[in-house]
Amino acid sequence: MAYDRQTESRGASARPGGPASRTGRPAGRSTAPATLTIGDLAEEFGVTLRALRFYEAKGLLHPQRRGTTRLYTEDDRSRLATILRGKELGFTLREIAAMVDGDEIAEAGAGATLSLSPAQVAEQITHLENQKAEIERALAALRGYGTTVATA
Fold first, then answer.
1. Tens digits of per-residue pLDDT, 19-34?
2. CA distance from start to end of the chain
3. 52, 41 in Cβ contact below 8 A?
4. At what angle do helices 38-45 and 74-88 cross, to 10 degrees?
5. pLDDT value at position 34?
6. Which residues span the domain enclosing 95?
7. Would you state the pLDDT for residue 13?
8. Is the C-alpha dihedral spanning 37, 38, 39, 45 positive or negative?
9. Phi, psi angle pair for 147, to nearest 5°
10. Tens digits of per-residue pLDDT, 53-88?
11. Is the residue at 22 inside a domain?
12. Number of domains within the chain
């Protein structure tokens, strides 16, 4: 799954120097905003506000604060994309945190990705294959149970 960045302006005014939009940039700009509110980031990545707050509470995201408003920078967007990619690959949040906080992406900036060693990849493949086998056994058992119930 790819995480595309939105490039359209969200402001109400197209005048240069006009009122600032919700993103912290003057309205009418055609480039990606310097910062996003929690709602804008959630919408962009298809996650809930609760999920973003949870990632913040776990130390995975570090938004700026302006009063009670959370403002997310390009680095936060990149970090969230990396977190979601790690989840997609089946890693736990604890494992993702170790990868993220282990400086694998700290210096990578906007182009951040998970940095995995061949051993980590092999270990995750084995883990996911084991989970798949367990799921297949459970499905077979449930299908057998369903057949038994249907004939009774």
1. 344 444 444 444 556 8
2. 44
3. yes
4. 40
5. 86
6. 36-116
7. 33
8. positive
9. -70, -40
10. 999 999 999 999 999 999 999 999 999 999 999 999
11. no
12. 1
